[in-house]
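stuck on this one:
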Amino acid sequence: MVNSSENPFTLNSYKPLTLISHKLCPYVQRAVIALQERGLDYSRIDIDLSEKPDWFLALSPLGRVPVLVIDNTTVLFESAVIAEYINDISGAELLSRTAVEKARQRAWIEFASATLSDIAKLYSVRDEPAFKEAVNHLGDKWGRLEQNGTLSDFFNGQGFTLVDAAFAPLFRYFDLFEKITEFDFLTDFTKVAHWRKSLAKRPSVIAAVGDDYSGLLSQFLMKRPSYLGGLARQYFLETA
């Protein structure tokens, strides 16, 4: 992890594609999944978002990850833009070539981002009633997805796309959430549950996080002054 004030790109030791990231960020995972799917060679620099280096702030107009640096000069930011760039330069089929279907896929990627906001509420609310309300809001999202007639192993039923890359990171949260709460968040949504399991087996999805991801997410949750944070602290105390 790079935390120093020295700009790492002055070292001229990075590959043509360098991804600036954070180990827990689901938006970073989208970009990594796209890179992995296309087999592109890249470097990855993880930073501490609580102590953002000056060189990173100079690169990132919004001060957020992911950021993709191309040939140590050109900077792209925002995960959807980065993922589409990766798709374009690799001749991939991660987005449809037809205008209407590509627009539809982009819309569902935005839907995934809105779902991530609901997940943030899930681990931020302070009491059980608010937590149950957040679960219900998520249920509305799952219900919308369940109505997608092509949903199976992949969103479009045929092959992996950037829509799958957008949803895989948010499904990953529930591996830990369900362990802590002993609650199946997708019990009423069989198609979405199948999709989640299919994506979890995908090599690109597995490779999007490090071996320390689960431990880091557990630590993150236990520090939250929230209802789910309290359940996490209790769970890990009892299982220690």
User: Anything to note?
Assistant: The mean pLDDT is 94. The radius of gyration is 18 Å. The CA atoms of residues 31 and 80 lie 8 Å apart. The domain at 99-239 is CATH 1.20.1050.10 (Glutathione S-transferase Yfyf (Class Pi); Chain A, domain 2).
